[in-house]
Design a protein that fits this description.
about 300 residues; mainly alpha; 13 helices; about 80% helix; globular
Length: about 300
Amino acid sequence: MTAGRLALPVLVASACVLGLAPVLVRLTDTGPAAAGFWRLAFALPVLALIASRAKTSDPVDGRGPDRWMALAGLFFALDMSFWHYGLTLTSVANATVLCNLTPVVVTGFAWLVFKERPRRLFLAALALAICGAGAMAFGASGSGLARERSLLGDALSLSVTLWYASYFLCVQRARRGASASRVMLWSSAAGAPLMLLAALLMGEQLRPTGPEGWLFCLSLGLVHVVGQGGVAWSLGQLPAALTAITILVQPVVAGLLGWAIFAETLTPVQLVGGAVVLGAVVMAQASAAKKKGAKAEASAPVS
């Protein structure tokens, strides 16, 4: 199987792996930003090993980080800081869904700046994804102070959309001249001290209190390497808009895990919303396949 055909299965698998992240953040027994720091800190040695073993003919890959990798690290640190704090105030499903409305920003940016006009089927899929995400986020049960607390967490999670979209676009730009392993290494190295600084400024608990907390922090690092690394690799093969909308598999996985582990109630509306999101992902992938097929027919020689 060629890299192009492998990219989509890798992306879906990576999104499922990333669905573990919000659950692990809850279990680390540290502050929200501190959990993000340990995620990157434990990932860095593995990423350094992978980058050192990666074979590439691109001379740029042997140099230090460029501005796009550094910006990716900055935006990822902002992404995790806002998202992790949102996770402490709202449900796993809500926080993960709202922060993954990134396709709206990415598609709009690609359309306006890069002149990448999406197909009508893709726009329909995007609209469905938004409706499904909204159903999952606002179909939750609860009232009073708990509901107000949840709405604040939802607002923090929704703000992540801007940071995550910026991260996506910076990684895609960095992947034009560097391997996924090197982009991941330098963006993570740039983001780790920022996460540590945020944890110190917020007066968070930095260290887990027991062996289980350390194990969950280590697991977060592995999730970062496998999940976010797979996304970075896929961004070198697929359009950013398609990648962003496929990532919406993540909140469905996270919601199911939140229900199984934390007994977070999934209402019928949320279940329908999750099904709509998955259907939208399939539609977006079908749209991308049709667009690719149309380009192939247009470039085929006339016999």
